[in-house]
Amino acid sequence: MRLTSRRYIGSKAKLLDWIFSNIDNNVKGNSFFDIFAGTGCVIEKALTSYDSVIINDILSSNKVVYDAFWGDIVIDIDIINKYKLIFNSLDSIIDHNYFSINYGGKYFGVNDSKKIGYIRELIENDFKNNYINKREKNILLASLIYSIDKIANTVGHYEAYRKIEITDNRFKFDLIDIPNKNVNKKVEIYKEDANRLARKIYSDIVFVDPPYNSRQYSRFYHVIENLVEWKKPELFGIALKPAPQNMSEYCRNNAPAVFDDLISNLNCKYIVVTYNNTYNSKSSSSKNKIKLEEILNSLNKRGKTQIFSSDHRFFNAGKTSLSNHKEYLFITEVTCEK
């Protein structure tokens, strides 16, 4: 499975050619830093053009994916393939486990959820017993994330499950496409708060695509976060969410100040920001917390800013209605040092 083979809100996969065409024509540099990386598709594209890339996201599940695709630990592909055979030979005669007790019959079929929980426990135990190394573990976990995304009883995220009858026994474990080692490419991977990390990192180009509305990614993807971290917390409510964690300040009312702090502390030659005009959305959760004018004000403090726009169909879970939707790209050449 390719890096972009999973559903993810706000993914820039369909905009990559437009984004990088404008970057290539207006930006010069050898290093590229995606500070809110999400699926990682922007970094995947950047690796074709830049010698050094830095990737960061606050979600544990996303960092697992980055480590799986671009980690530098040597792996044994025969071991990986052996696990694939084991996982796909499981039958439904498996005891209930943490995953199936909580998610079975809701986000996944009962039998499928038993297999998913069994696989996750086996991966954890075999890693603790040194049968697999850290990157082999992350490849198996990333593959599990992508495999369950195909059968999840959701509309593309885990804010809630669909109240319909679930077709069971659909789970199949597929491996991600493990890329060949990027020769002469440097990849740094982080899981940190963006505003804190900005103060510690230099890159010629920094790509900024923060969450702009009130939808917290840690809540939208709580099931896969729980699966990856495997701390087995108590879950609450109809949607079976754990206690809140990794809550982004960009989804709160003080987002403009948080964004301004980030931009003010980036150490780079160019700042590239993406933004879409959902500020007047009918759905309160879809309304942007930062206005376009506030984005520009922050960027113009650092240098000269160019603006590009593109028509783009955005993610819609059913409540958001917005005509003339546009995606904006801001490119700022930094002239004012932090």
From TrEMBL:
One Pfam family linked to the record: MethyltransfD12
InterPro entries: DNA_methylase_N6_adenine_CS, MeTrfase_D12, SAM-dependent_MTases_sf
Enzyme Commission number(s) from the entry: 2.1.1.72
Signal peptide: none
Catalytic reaction equation(s): a 2'-deoxyadenosine in DNA + S-adenosyl-L-methionine = an N(6)-methyl-2'-deoxyadenosine in DNA + S-adenosyl-L-homocysteine + H(+)
Plastid is among the record's keywords: no
EC class of the enzyme, as a word: transferase
Top-level taxon: Bacteria
Any one GO molecular function term: site-specific DNA-methyltransferase (adenine-specific) activity
Protein name: site-specific DNA-methyltransferase (adenine-specific)
Protein species of origin: Mycoplasma capricolum subsp. capricolum
